[in-house]
Design brief:
This protein has one domain (3-98): NAD(P)-binding Rossmann-like Domain (Rossmann fold, 3-Layer(aba) Sandwich). Helix content is 43%, strand content 8%. It has helices at 3-24, 49-58, 67-77, and strands at 33-36, 89-92. The chain has a two-stranded parallel ribbon. The longest helix has 22 residues, at 3-24. The radius of gyration is 15 Å and the shape is globular.
Length: 99
Amino acid sequence: MGQANYSSSKAGLIGLTKATAREVASRGITCNAVAPGFIVTELTKDLPAALTDQIKAQTPLGHFGTVEDIANAVTFLASDEAGYITGQVLAVDGGLVMQ
């Protein structure tokens, strides 16, 4: 329940990322997206322990990420080192999307 709105908005952001990357590439501008997995935040801190354990068990790295994990990915994508990366969606999710 309630996943239609989430999945459609996520698909829209992915489409926007790819379309924008194509539109601005000729000007040397890159556009990428970061797709976080379960991250320790105010939103996830109150999840029931059974659900948290289930999510961790399904995540290959076995734990939730941190806001620093997301910040590091964004910092990389905004850096000169990522200058040839555009139109991509970087999953920062401990391997969860591999499942």
